[in-house]
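Hi L.,

As promised, DUF155 domain-containing protein:
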Amino acid sequence: MDTVNDRLAPPGPIAWRVDLRDDAAPAAGTTLRRPFTAQALRLPAHVAEVLRETPDGGGFVVLQLPSGQATPYELQAEAEAWASADGIAAAEVLVRSVRVLWRPGRAVCTGPAADSEEVIAGLVHFTRVERALAALEAEIDGQWAAWQDDLPLTHGVGRRDLSRQRHVNAMTAAAHGYRMRFVRLEAALESPSADLPPLGRRVFSELVLLADALSRLRALDDAIEIGQDLYDTANDRLLEYSYFRREYVIEIFILAVLMVELAATAVQIGLGLP
Protein backbone atom coordinates (compact mmCIF):
# COMPACT_ATOMS: atom_id res chain seq x y z
CA MET A 1 0.00 0.00 0.00
CA ASP A 2 1.38 3.40 -0.92
CA THR A 3 1.67 6.14 1.66
CA VAL A 4 1.14 9.89 1.47
CA ASN A 5 4.91 10.30 1.18
CA ASP A 6 5.01 7.83 -1.70
CA ARG A 7 2.31 9.70 -3.55
CA LEU A 8 3.88 13.12 -2.95
CA ALA A 9 7.54 12.16 -3.27
CA PRO A 10 8.89 13.69 -6.47
CA PRO A 11 11.12 11.68 -8.85
CA GLY A 12 13.25 14.82 -9.16
CA PRO A 13 13.17 18.51 -8.29
CA ILE A 14 9.66 19.87 -7.93
CA ALA A 15 7.96 23.01 -6.69
CA TRP A 16 4.94 23.15 -4.41
CA ARG A 17 2.54 26.05 -4.27
CA VAL A 18 0.93 26.11 -0.83
CA ASP A 19 -2.49 27.71 -0.65
CA LEU A 20 -3.18 28.86 2.93
CA ARG A 21 -6.88 29.44 3.43
CA ASP A 22 -8.21 31.25 6.47
CA ASP A 23 -11.28 29.14 7.08
CA ALA A 24 -12.32 26.18 9.16
CA ALA A 25 -14.12 24.28 6.40
CA PRO A 26 -12.66 20.86 5.59
CA ALA A 27 -10.69 20.78 2.36
CA ALA A 28 -8.48 18.41 0.41
CA GLY A 29 -5.42 19.58 2.30
CA THR A 30 -3.88 19.81 5.74
CA THR A 31 -5.78 21.46 8.58
CA LEU A 32 -3.69 23.92 10.61
CA ARG A 33 -5.23 24.50 14.03
CA ARG A 34 -2.79 26.95 15.57
CA PRO A 35 -2.83 29.86 16.05
CA PHE A 36 -6.04 30.05 13.98
CA THR A 37 -7.77 27.32 12.03
CA ALA A 38 -6.78 27.27 8.37
CA GLN A 39 -6.37 24.91 5.45
CA ALA A 40 -3.08 24.29 3.63
CA LEU A 41 -3.44 22.88 0.12
CA ARG A 42 -0.29 21.84 -1.78
CA LEU A 43 -0.30 22.00 -5.56
CA PRO A 44 2.66 20.89 -7.74
CA ALA A 45 4.32 23.40 -10.06
CA HIS A 46 7.25 23.47 -12.49
CA VAL A 47 10.56 24.45 -10.92
CA ALA A 48 11.71 26.54 -13.90
CA GLU A 49 8.43 28.47 -13.89
CA VAL A 50 8.68 29.23 -10.18
CA LEU A 51 12.29 30.37 -10.43
CA ARG A 52 11.32 32.95 -13.06
CA GLU A 53 8.46 34.42 -11.05
CA THR A 54 8.53 37.62 -9.06
CA PRO A 55 7.09 36.95 -5.60
CA ASP A 56 3.82 38.73 -4.85
CA GLY A 57 4.15 38.41 -1.09
CA GLY A 58 0.85 36.59 -0.69
CA GLY A 59 1.69 32.99 -1.51
CA PHE A 60 4.11 30.37 -0.26
CA VAL A 61 6.22 28.26 -2.60
CA VAL A 62 8.54 25.40 -1.64
CA LEU A 63 11.24 23.99 -3.90
CA GLN A 64 11.78 20.34 -2.99
CA LEU A 65 15.14 19.15 -4.28
CA PRO A 66 16.57 15.64 -3.97
CA SER A 67 19.98 15.55 -2.34
CA GLY A 68 23.19 14.62 -4.11
CA GLN A 69 23.59 14.23 -7.85
CA ALA A 70 19.83 14.00 -8.41
CA THR A 71 19.83 17.81 -8.39
CA PRO A 72 22.34 19.49 -10.75
CA TYR A 73 24.72 21.94 -9.12
CA GLU A 74 23.47 24.75 -11.35
CA LEU A 75 19.91 24.20 -10.12
CA GLN A 76 21.03 24.14 -6.51
CA ALA A 77 22.83 27.47 -6.98
CA GLU A 78 19.83 28.99 -8.76
CA ALA A 79 17.51 27.80 -5.99
CA GLU A 80 19.73 29.35 -3.31
CA ALA A 81 19.79 32.65 -5.20
CA TRP A 82 15.99 32.47 -5.56
CA ALA A 83 15.62 31.94 -1.81
CA SER A 84 17.64 35.09 -1.08
CA ALA A 85 16.36 37.30 -3.91
CA ASP A 86 15.60 41.00 -3.41
CA GLY A 87 18.28 41.27 -0.75
CA ILE A 88 16.28 39.28 1.80
CA ALA A 89 18.53 36.75 3.54
CA ALA A 90 17.08 33.29 3.95
CA ALA A 91 17.24 31.51 7.30
CA GLU A 92 19.17 28.23 7.06
CA VAL A 93 18.21 25.15 9.06
CA LEU A 94 19.80 21.71 9.03
CA VAL A 95 17.69 18.84 10.36
CA ARG A 96 18.97 15.30 10.01
CA SER A 97 19.81 14.99 6.29
CA VAL A 98 17.69 17.92 5.10
CA ARG A 99 18.90 21.46 4.43
CA VAL A 100 16.29 24.20 4.54
CA LEU A 101 16.39 27.78 3.33
CA TRP A 102 13.35 29.79 4.42
CA ARG A 103 12.15 33.34 4.04
CA PRO A 104 8.64 34.80 4.01
CA GLY A 105 6.83 33.46 0.97
CA ARG A 106 9.36 30.86 -0.20
CA ALA A 107 11.61 28.02 0.90
CA VAL A 108 14.07 25.48 -0.49
CA CYS A 109 14.13 22.00 1.00
CA THR A 110 17.02 19.74 -0.07
CA GLY A 111 17.22 16.15 1.09
CA PRO A 112 15.64 12.68 0.93
CA ALA A 113 11.97 12.78 -0.04
CA ALA A 114 10.63 11.09 3.10
CA ASP A 115 12.49 13.44 5.47
CA SER A 116 11.66 16.44 3.29
CA GLU A 117 7.95 15.70 3.62
CA GLU A 118 8.16 16.02 7.40
CA VAL A 119 10.21 19.19 7.08
CA ILE A 120 7.78 20.76 4.62
CA ALA A 121 4.96 20.19 7.11
CA GLY A 122 6.93 22.26 9.63
CA LEU A 123 7.68 24.93 7.03
CA VAL A 124 4.02 25.31 6.14
CA HIS A 125 2.99 25.52 9.79
CA PHE A 126 5.68 28.06 10.63
CA THR A 127 4.81 30.15 7.59
CA ARG A 128 1.21 30.28 8.76
CA VAL A 129 2.20 31.38 12.27
CA GLU A 130 4.82 33.88 11.09
CA ARG A 131 2.36 35.36 8.62
CA ALA A 132 -0.17 35.87 11.43
CA LEU A 133 2.55 37.54 13.49
CA ALA A 134 3.55 39.84 10.62
CA ALA A 135 -0.10 40.78 10.07
CA LEU A 136 -0.49 41.72 13.73
CA GLU A 137 2.72 43.76 13.58
CA ALA A 138 1.46 45.65 10.53
CA GLU A 139 -1.96 46.34 12.05
CA ILE A 140 -0.54 47.68 15.30
CA ASP A 141 2.05 49.74 13.44
CA GLY A 142 -0.81 51.37 11.56
CA GLN A 143 -2.56 52.39 14.80
CA TRP A 144 0.07 54.69 16.29
CA ALA A 145 -1.22 57.84 14.55
CA ALA A 146 -4.78 57.22 15.76
CA TRP A 147 -3.55 56.47 19.27
CA GLN A 148 -1.63 59.74 19.30
CA ASP A 149 -4.71 61.67 18.14
CA ASP A 150 -6.85 60.07 20.86
CA LEU A 151 -4.33 60.62 23.65
CA PRO A 152 -6.04 63.83 24.94
CA LEU A 153 -9.13 61.76 25.76
CA THR A 154 -7.24 60.14 28.64
CA HIS A 155 -7.08 63.28 30.79
CA GLY A 156 -9.71 65.78 29.73
CA VAL A 157 -12.95 65.55 27.76
CA GLY A 158 -15.71 67.97 26.88
CA ARG A 159 -19.15 68.02 25.31
CA ARG A 160 -17.81 67.73 21.77
CA ASP A 161 -15.80 64.64 22.68
CA LEU A 162 -18.98 62.69 23.44
CA SER A 163 -19.50 62.31 19.69
CA ARG A 164 -16.33 60.18 19.61
CA GLN A 165 -17.75 57.51 21.89
CA ARG A 166 -18.50 55.12 19.03
CA HIS A 167 -14.95 55.52 17.70
CA VAL A 168 -13.50 54.91 21.17
CA ASN A 169 -15.67 51.82 21.60
CA ALA A 170 -14.40 50.40 18.30
CA MET A 171 -10.78 51.14 19.17
CA THR A 172 -11.23 49.56 22.61
CA ALA A 173 -12.58 46.39 21.03
CA ALA A 174 -9.69 46.39 18.52
CA ALA A 175 -7.08 46.74 21.28
CA HIS A 176 -8.51 43.83 23.24
CA GLY A 177 -8.76 41.84 20.01
CA TYR A 178 -5.02 42.39 19.54
CA ARG A 179 -4.46 40.96 23.01
CA MET A 180 -6.43 37.83 22.17
CA ARG A 181 -4.44 37.30 18.99
CA PHE A 182 -1.22 37.90 20.92
CA VAL A 183 -2.05 35.16 23.44
CA ARG A 184 -2.86 32.65 20.71
CA LEU A 185 0.31 33.49 18.79
CA GLU A 186 2.38 33.17 21.95
CA ALA A 187 1.05 29.67 22.56
CA ALA A 188 1.63 28.67 18.93
CA LEU A 189 5.23 29.94 18.89
CA GLU A 190 6.25 28.48 22.23
CA SER A 191 4.86 25.02 21.54
CA PRO A 192 4.68 23.55 18.02
CA SER A 193 1.49 21.80 17.03
CA ALA A 194 1.23 18.21 18.27
CA ASP A 195 0.07 17.26 14.77
CA LEU A 196 3.53 17.95 13.33
CA PRO A 197 5.91 15.04 12.72
CA PRO A 198 9.23 15.08 14.62
CA LEU A 199 11.31 16.74 11.89
CA GLY A 200 8.53 19.24 11.29
CA ARG A 201 8.57 20.22 14.96
CA ARG A 202 12.35 20.61 14.89
CA VAL A 203 12.38 22.86 11.84
CA PHE A 204 9.50 24.88 13.29
CA SER A 205 11.39 25.47 16.55
CA GLU A 206 14.59 26.38 14.71
CA LEU A 207 12.80 28.91 12.52
CA VAL A 208 11.13 30.49 15.55
CA LEU A 209 14.64 31.26 16.83
CA LEU A 210 16.13 32.33 13.50
CA ALA A 211 13.19 34.60 12.63
CA ASP A 212 13.37 36.15 16.12
CA ALA A 213 9.64 35.50 16.32
CA LEU A 214 9.32 35.50 20.11
CA SER A 215 11.24 38.79 20.45
CA ARG A 216 9.00 40.33 17.80
CA LEU A 217 5.98 39.13 19.72
CA ARG A 218 7.32 40.54 23.00
CA ALA A 219 7.74 43.92 21.31
CA LEU A 220 4.04 43.86 20.47
CA ASP A 221 3.15 43.18 24.10
CA ASP A 222 4.07 46.72 25.19
CA ALA A 223 2.29 48.29 22.22
CA ILE A 224 -0.90 46.35 22.89
CA GLU A 225 -0.79 47.33 26.56
CA ILE A 226 -0.53 50.99 25.55
CA GLY A 227 -3.57 50.66 23.30
CA GLN A 228 -5.61 48.86 25.95
CA ASP A 229 -4.71 51.36 28.69
CA LEU A 230 -5.35 54.34 26.42
CA TYR A 231 -8.85 53.34 25.37
CA ASP A 232 -9.88 51.89 28.73
CA THR A 233 -8.96 55.25 30.26
CA ALA A 234 -10.63 57.21 27.44
CA ASN A 235 -13.81 55.19 27.93
CA ASP A 236 -13.76 55.91 31.66
CA ARG A 237 -13.33 59.64 31.04
CA LEU A 238 -16.13 59.78 28.47
CA LEU A 239 -18.50 57.79 30.69
CA GLU A 240 -17.67 59.94 33.71
CA TYR A 241 -18.30 63.12 31.73
CA SER A 242 -21.49 61.70 30.24
CA TYR A 243 -22.82 60.83 33.71
CA PHE A 244 -21.76 64.22 35.06
CA ARG A 245 -23.45 66.04 32.19
CA ARG A 246 -26.65 64.01 32.57
CA GLU A 247 -26.79 64.63 36.32
CA TYR A 248 -25.99 68.30 35.79
CA VAL A 249 -28.88 68.68 33.33
CA ILE A 250 -31.25 66.89 35.71
CA GLU A 251 -30.16 69.09 38.62
CA ILE A 252 -30.64 72.24 36.52
CA PHE A 253 -34.11 71.02 35.54
CA ILE A 254 -35.04 70.33 39.18
CA LEU A 255 -33.68 73.72 40.21
CA ALA A 256 -35.70 75.40 37.46
CA VAL A 257 -38.88 73.64 38.60
CA LEU A 258 -38.24 74.72 42.19
CA MET A 259 -37.63 78.30 41.07
CA VAL A 260 -40.91 78.29 39.14
CA GLU A 261 -42.76 76.93 42.17
CA LEU A 262 -41.08 79.50 44.41
CA ALA A 263 -42.00 82.31 42.03
CA ALA A 264 -45.59 81.10 41.87
CA THR A 265 -45.77 80.99 45.66
CA ALA A 266 -44.36 84.51 45.92
CA VAL A 267 -46.93 85.79 43.45
CA GLN A 268 -49.73 84.16 45.41
CA ILE A 269 -48.51 85.72 48.64
CA GLY A 270 -48.11 89.11 47.01
CA LEU A 271 -51.64 89.04 45.65
CA GLY A 272 -53.05 87.73 48.89
CA LEU A 273 -54.38 84.68 47.18
CA PRO A 274 -55.18 81.65 49.32
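Residues 4-115 form a domain with the Beta Polymerase; domain 2 fold (CATH 3.30.460).

Thanks again for sending the construct details.

K.
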